[in-house]
Amino acid sequence: MDMFKDLCCSGFARRTAEELAEQYGGEQSKGLVGGLLTQLASEGGNSEATQNLLAMFTGKQQMSLEAVAGMVSESGGEQLREHATEKGLDPSLLDGVMNLVKGMKSGGGDGTDDGGSKFDPSMLLGLVAGLTKGGASGAGGGCDGFLQLLGGSGDGSSMGNIMQILEGLAKSFFNIKGKSSPAIQSWQVAGAAENANDKNFVKWALSVLMDLLFPGRKPKEVIEEGGDNDIDTGDKKDDGDVKGWFDGHPEIGKMQKDVFDDIFDTGDDDQNEDDDPSPIVPMPTDYEDNCSCLDNAAILFLNSNLLLEYRKNWRFLYSSRNHSKSLNEMMERICYKGPTILVVKDTSGNIFGCHASTSWIDTEEGWVGNGECFLFSISPKMAVFHSTGKDENFQKLSSSLLAMGGQAGCHGLELADDLASGDCNANIDTFHTIQLSQDKPFEIEHVEVWGLGAEPDMDSEKRNVRPRQPNLQTRGGNVDMLDLESQIM
What single-letter DSSP state applies at residue 282? Predict the structure, then answer.
């Protein structure tokens, strides 16, 4: 069936598209839509490429695109600029998108308008498909659209341009989705609004780019050598490298789709964020006002580095802003609660912490946890530090200290019993980590803990989570079989 011709010839579709165009751009845009429908039908409707692109969109989405086409075709798309600005598209993306729009006039590929060039609606279809559907092939996670954004910004796949587009996508995502997302709105109340810092989006962008900038190298090596402080922003990557990197970070494609589905009104009506098992932003539950020191960029960073099963819900367990500042108080609230994220802010403003893969328990001078544990830094650097595989000294907890990695007297992260001070070390076997705080030891301003995913059954956790005793050295060949079974089960 010729979907395109059916759409163009449908009086109902034409009237609906005209009404949408009038809503966005006024009476003049309404009049333009009829001409665009006719133009598409006569010039592009029968091409296989146009048909493939149209097939990606539902009838309602096609009508929305007709309204957008009406805005684009008049005055170089200034109505679209106003519409996108009102929606919340970040300025770092807006100019690039408008450059792409200007190139949609036949004979105007250089962004100029000679007054006689004619708008090509099929180019709009290609752009929107690339940004929201993955391109003409329907694959690639939206990398086609990402590359188009890079091209629209004028400097192609340079590192500076990629960082700018990433920063713009993240800011646009929170600007736009924050108007309707219960998760983002809840985090605003929990502290993200008070902690807002746009500079952290730059740190997030750099953290995502580490494997494109320094393939095969650990963040620890790059940070300690200062490589992340001396980036050549003019260095250009080829499209194949960008695609491989993009496909390894699906959160970028998800944000890109959400942002431009909202701009072009091409979202799926039958889907909402509750349907996403691994959303960009988790829903915080049981939280209290301003209980957190995290901002939007930090939440995006942490959630994107968790296993998919932990990304939907974060359960508020403890905050030194809201509860007694003592390890005993924290133990009562976090033990047997399943995997957690623990965040520390020291008095110098450094923010860092750990992901515990296993319920916290009194480890009786032993250890719990597995190789899914990691340490992380948010400020001044944003990076994750994974297990080395050299030992299993992941989580230790008693009434006198909480520790992650390393050994007695030299832990990767350690908190004292009064939660007033702590220590950290880079030279440990457990994690590829930097020294998390610039101060050693450090003074603690704030601590918070979030449970991840569904709350487990406490009795089951008490039966299954048992500490490995320190005399059982895996590297020496001695393995606690009961503990190994509990990790597998």
Answer: P
Structure tokens at 171: 């800011």
Q: What is the pTM of this model?
A: 0.86
Q: β-pairing, 283-285 with 313-319?
A: parallel
CA 356 to chain centroid: 20
Q: What is the pLDDT of residue 43?
A: 53
Please tell me the predicted confidence (pLDDT) of residue 316: 98
| Token pair 């957690």 in the structure block, residue | 340
The pLDDT assigned to 416 comes to 97
Q: CA-based Rg of the chain, rounded to a whole angstrom? A: 26
Give the end-to-end CA distance of the chain in Å, rounded to a whole number.
53
Nearest to 451, CA basis, from 299, 289, 333, 293: 333
Cα separation of 251 and 63, whole Å? 28
Distances (CA, A) of 79 to 17, 70, 74, 82, 175: 16, 9, 8, 5, 20
How many C-beta atoms lie closer than 10 Å to residue 87's C-beta?
A: 16
For the chain, counts of helices (H) and of strands (E):
18, 13
For 168, the token pair is: 């713009």
What is the rounded CA–CA span in Å between residue 131 and residue 246?
13
Candidates 212, 87, 284, 243; CA nearest to 150 is: 243
SS3 category, 149: helix
Cβ atoms 391, 429 nearer than 8 A: yes
Q: What is the pLDDT of residues 16-35, one digit of tens each?
A: 444 544 554 444 444 444 44
d(CA 193, CA 303): 18
- Do residues 291 and 190 lie in contact, with contact meaning Cβ atoms separated by under 8 Å? yes
- The predicted-structure confidence for 87-108, as pLDDT tens digits, reads as follows 999 999 999 998 888 887 655 4
DSSP string, 42-84: IIITTSHHHHHHHTTS-HHHHHHHHHHHHHHHSGGGHHHHHHH
Long-range contacts of 200-203 (CB under 8 A, 24+ apart): 200/295, 200/296, 200/297, 200/298, 200/378, 200/379, 200/382, 201/167, 201/170, 201/171, 201/296, 201/297, 202/163, 202/167, 203/297, 203/301, 203/378, 203/379, 203/381, 203/382
- Listed as ranges, residues in the chain with pLDDT below 50 are 1-18, 20-21, 24-35, 37, 44, 108-114, 135-141, 471-479, 481-484, 486-489
Between CA 34 and CA 40 the distance in angstroms is 10
Torsion of Cα atoms, 423 then 429 then 432 then 435, to 10°? 20
The per-residue DSSP string of 292-350 comes to ----HHHHHHHHHTS-GGGSSEEEEEEETTTS-SSHHHHHHHHBTS-SEEEEEEETTS-
pLDDT reported for residue 109: 46
Closest among 411, 403, 357, 347 to 379, alpha carbons compared: 347
* Rounded Cα gap, residues 72 and 91, in angstroms: 18
| Residues composing the chain | 489
